[in-house]
Amino acid sequence: MTMRKGHFEKMEIMKTENQRPYKQVLDGLRAVGLRPTRQRLALAKLLFEGEDRHVTAEMLHAEAQAASIRVSLATVYNTLHQFTTAGLLREIVVDSQRSYFDTNMSDHHHFFFESTSRLEDIPGDEVVVAKLPDPPAGMSVKRVDVVVRVEAI
Amino acid sequence: MTMRKGHFEKMEIMKTENQRPYKQVLDGLRAVGLRPTRQRLALAKLLFEGEDRHVTAEMLHAEAQAASIRVSLATVYNTLHQFTTAGLLREIVVDSQRSYFDTNMSDHHHFFFESTSRLEDIPGDEVVVAKLPDPPAGMSVKRVDVVVRVEAI
DNA sequence: GTGATTGCAAATCTTTTGCACTAAA
DNA sequence: TTTAGTGCAAAAGATTTGCAATCAC
């Protein structure tokens, strides 16, 4: 039960390995300026403990309920956006009907399985964008997203 | 007032240059197996005459109204999807809240201006994806979308 | 005619918002 | 205390659907 690296890097007081994830998450939230409320702590633990993941608000809400965490869907939405603004999550746009949030903040891209609406990370070094045009005058590139849409053969 | 190349390529009977776009669009629709109804003809003319464009259902509906074309929003949605299925349009996913349809069917990518929700084509030869991972077993790559998100400096 | 298409309104789905209540600092 | 955060229900926005009326063939 360990926190992955990369999140909560701005923690003022880095905790040692044997401390409880609870405390890490708590301080992590404080570090990004969010009060560590019961709901945020619970959602952060669901999101950041274990493997990297891609969630929708609905999925995370269902998971919280399954874990007996009382939290409203509205709060799940608010929390996902707050975490995104705080730099703990990234929003991935692959489906014009639903928002996905990715806990993997490193430079990487995605496979998208349209038939199942499932996302899978592609490590950054497995995609090389060798040429890009200059952005229009007065504009700067914020992000380059590569989505590889795959289907069953 | 000319049809650009690339659309309705499957036309059984290619019309000569001096024929009316109306007839071209009409036959084009027939060629993809859609009855050339008043609404489809009018929407096709709006979409395929003139420059390449990126439209949402709402935008196209407003444009139709402005041109005194009576068509319901539901029919605009249906038509956009039928044209997409028929290979006349491509759906571009850049905004998880709204669907954009692109009349440019050639191989290309996009700039997306998040502040204005505007799309701009990047010609295919200005983006080079030099390396891509193999798709997971049993899957094939359907499409690779590159979205360059830009913001004001 | 007959089967496809349309329009409208209602339904659905995702997401946001207003506001009284609760909890963190 | 004081202010941020939460839950709920209602609202909003995009899209789809059901079905009778209409149109293309």
Question: What oligomeric state best describes the polypeptide chains here?
Answer: homodimer
Helix content of chain A: 25-40%
Radius of gyration of chain A: 17 Å
Q: Which blocks of ≥5 consecutive residues of chain A have pLDDT under 50?
A: 8-20
Main structural class of chain A = alpha+beta
Mean pLDDT of chain A: 85
Shape of chain A: globular
Largest β sheet strand count, sense and barrel closure of chain A: 3 strands, antiparallel
The largest interface is: A-B, 40 and 40 residues
Percent of residues in β-strands of chain A = 15-25%
Strand order of the largest sheet of chain A: 1-3-2
Q: Number of helical segments of chain A?
A: 4
Q: Span between N and C termini of chain A?
A: 38 Å
Record field, number of beta strands of chain A: 7
Order of helices and strands of chain A: HHEHHEEEEEE
Entry keywords:
homodimer; three-stranded antiparallel beta sheet; alpha+beta; 153 residues; DNA-binding; 29% helix; 4 helices
Descriptive account of the structure:
- The structure is a homodimer of 153-residue chains.
- Chain A is an alpha+beta fold and 153 residues long.
- Helix content of chain A is 29%, strand content 25%.
- Chain A is built from four helices and seven strands; from the N terminus they run ααβααββββββ.
- Chain A has helices spanning 21-31, 38-48, 57-66, 73-85, and strands at 54-55, 90-92, 100-102, 108-113, 118-123, 128-131, 139-152.
- In chain A, strands 1-3-2 form a three-stranded antiparallel beta sheet.
- In chain A, a hairpin with a 7-residue loop joins strand 2 and strand 3.
- The first copy, chain A, is globular and about 45 Å long.
- Chain A starts with 20 loop residues before the first helix and ends with a strand.
- Mean pLDDT of chain A is 85; it is low at 8-20.
- The interface between A and B is large, with 40 and 40 residues.
- Strand 7 (139-152) of chain A pairs antiparallel with strand 7 (139-152) of chain B.
- Chain A binds a DNA duplex (25 and 25 nucleotides) through helix 2 and helix 4.
